[in-house]
Amino acid sequence: MLILGIESSCDETSAAIIKGHTKNKNVKLLSNIVASSLSLHSKTGGIIPENAAREQIKFIIPVIRKALEEANLKSKDIDAIAVTYGPGLIGSLLIGVETAKTLSYVWNKPLIPVNHLIGHIYANFIELNPKRYTLNANIDFPVIALIVSGGHTDLVLIKQHGSITWLGGTRDDAAGEALDKIGRLLGLPYPGGPHIERHAKKGDPKKYQFPRPMIGSKDFDFSFSGLKAAVFREVSNLNYSSSGASAKSRSEFSTSSNNTNLSQQTKADICAAVQKAVINVLVKKTIKAAEKYSAKSILLGGGVAANQTLRNELEASSQKLGVKLFAPPKSLCTDNAAMIAAAAFFNYKQVNWQKIDANPSLYFD
Ligand code: KG4
Ligand code: ZN
Fold first, then answer.
1. Greatest CA separation found in the chain?
2. Cα 332 vs. chain centroid, distance in angstroms?
3. The whole model's pTM is what?
4. Which of 116, 168, 201, 303 has its CA 20 to 30 A from that of 264?
């Protein structure tokens, strides 16, 4: 089965074609085109939704054309269309959803609406080599999946394809969102996550002590805004001290101040400590969930899953527990349409195009 996936929930516009193998229960990737408006958002230090939506309009048709071209296929070859219908930015989502509905009607193809968060999990089921089908055939259920992105931090239990139970999520900032805000405070480009990882390599994670919010709580919830506030306070204190604290009051060294007087080493040490704090909490809660639900596999997904230290530490803890860890290739951690098409293949639920609407606040049932 050939599925065209379409993803436009935030600042990436993507179209991909996957070939699903019903017997092997696996998919291989034929094409995955991603156009990102990230450089535009770097200039504004974050995403302005109207700008992101305007970029989606520019890219949507070209990425679909290119995905078909690269897979050497024509529209008539496609068996179904899958599209992200939420969660995300309404303006961005609408572009993908309305395009997919139009194509479904004009080409007369079934349409499958996909939850973006479930898409991130299914990046783990994609075989990158178009000649093979085997990569993740050994993902055994029950699965515990950790979704860590710019907008979400969630733990879910998957008993089998189509049976997903939400266990917990962040009560305030998502892990990626906290990293991005801290990155901004430190004067790093947007999005901060990958830059924090880069600086952390040169830093000492023990130089600063930041809180690990909710690490010991009985539930599977997270909270990262307290960590963010602690880093803001630390940076403000460092700015105050390094200024010589002349006649100025401490309040002038607030979080909005220019932080160029922090040395590269101090920034690296802060990044290392922040990364450690975030990863400690994510790993501890994921392992706790895997233990409680006797998981056979742990799946990682979302943009923050591209972080190598997170992958390494979760791998070490999973091994100790005797559970297999799967993480998508880094190119499939951030937003892409291949994961949307894969999720549709394993959770095939066709819906009449007239009944599909973009839903920015879609979550788990
Ligand atoms: O999944 P994604 O592309 O978009 C959302 O659905 O939110 O995730 C983007 C997030 C951003 O917060 C970004 O800082 C983070 O993923 N991210 C990383 C890394 N690469 C991307 N965070 C930590 N380390 C990385 N290497
Ligand atoms: Zn995402």
1. 74
2. 9
3. 0.93
4. 303
Mean pLDDT to the nearest integer, 160-182: 96
Nearest to 114 by CA among 103, 126, 123, 102: 123
Does residue 117 sit in helix, strand or coil?
A: helix
Query: Residue 253 — pLDDT band, cuts 50, 70, 90?
Result: very low
Q: Is residue 176 a contact partner of residue 331, using CB atoms and an 8 Å limit? A: no
Name the region of 187 (left: φ>0; alpha: ψ -120 to 50; beta: rest).
Answer: left
| Helix spans in 22-48 (H) | 38-44
Q: Is the CB of 205 under 6 A from ligand 1?
A: no
Q: How confident is the model at residue 128, as a pLDDT? A: 76
Tokens linked to 77:
């070859």
Structure tokens at 80: 């179904």
pLDDT band of 131, cuts 50, 70, 90: low
Question: What is the C-alpha to C-alpha distance for residues 328 and 332, in angstroms, rounded to an integer?
Answer: 6
**Strand intervals (E) in the chain:** 2-7, 12-21, 26-36, 80-86, 111-115, 126-127, 143-148, 153-160, 163-169, 297-301, 324-326
Mean pLDDT across the stretch 58-75? 98
The CB of 340 under 6 Å from ligand 1? The reply is no
Cα of 210 vs centre of ligand 1, distance in Å, is 21
Expressed in angstroms and rounded, the spacing between residue 106 Cα and the centre of ligand 1 is 35
Structure token pair of residue 165: 């139970």
- 256-293, pLDDT tens digit by residue? 445 557 999 999 999 999 999 999 999 999 999 999 99
Sign of the C-alpha dihedral, residues 274, 298, 172, 284? negative
pLDDT in tens, 227-250: 999 999 999 999 877 766 554 555
Pocket lining: 179 vs ligand 1, CB cutoff 6 Å:
yes
Q: Return d(Cα 149, Cα 199) in angstroms, integer.
A: 20
Tokens of 342: 């894969």
pLDDT for position 365: 81
